[in-house]
Design goal:
By secondary structure, the chain is α+β, with helices and mostly antiparallel strands. Helices cover 33% and strands 29% of the residues.
Length: 135
């Protein structure tokens, strides 16, 4: 859906497809200013309207997050071909389930769970961009 080497917002370079979820794809990329790895998620212009709306809604939520337990959007928008995208810092932690089998102490797993819950709570309590403009 996006060619390797594509520039997004003049700040992020797309390198390669990492995973494919049908109409949504995940690409590895790089922030040009400092070389930091980024993730670029896209949903195709041909995706069902409901899927595109869901992707836009999630991008809106991620775009207003400011919490250490949540990824924030570095960029989001629509390309010329109507492909929707979000850019976030790269998340290379792997699945949480993999930690349990590696001898990670239960106390550490519980702390990770608490951090996840803290991040989820923020999703439900963060004001929308419209609400922030009113104040």
């Amino acid at each position: 859906m996006i060619a390797p080497g594509t520039l997004i917002e003049g700040q992020y370079k797309v390198w390669e497809e990492v995973s494919n979820f049908g109409t949504e794809l995940l690409y590895a990329g790089q922030r040009l200013s400092d070389g930091a790895p980024v993730d670029v998620r896209v949903v195709s212009a041909g995706a069902p309207r409901a899927r595109r709306k869901q992707f836009s809604d999630v991008a809106s939520i991620v775009g207003r997050l400011d919490h250490p337990n949540c990824l924030s959007a570095l960029g989001a928008g629509q390309l010329v071909d109507r492909t929707l995208y979000t850019v976030t810092d790269a998340l290379n932690a792997g699945p949480l389930a993999g930690l349990a089998g590696r001898g990670v102490p239960p106390r550490v797993l519980a702390e990770i769970g608490m951090q996840l819950m803290s991040g989820l709570c923020l999703l439900y309590t963060s004001p929308s961009p419209r609400d922030r403009q009113k104040s």
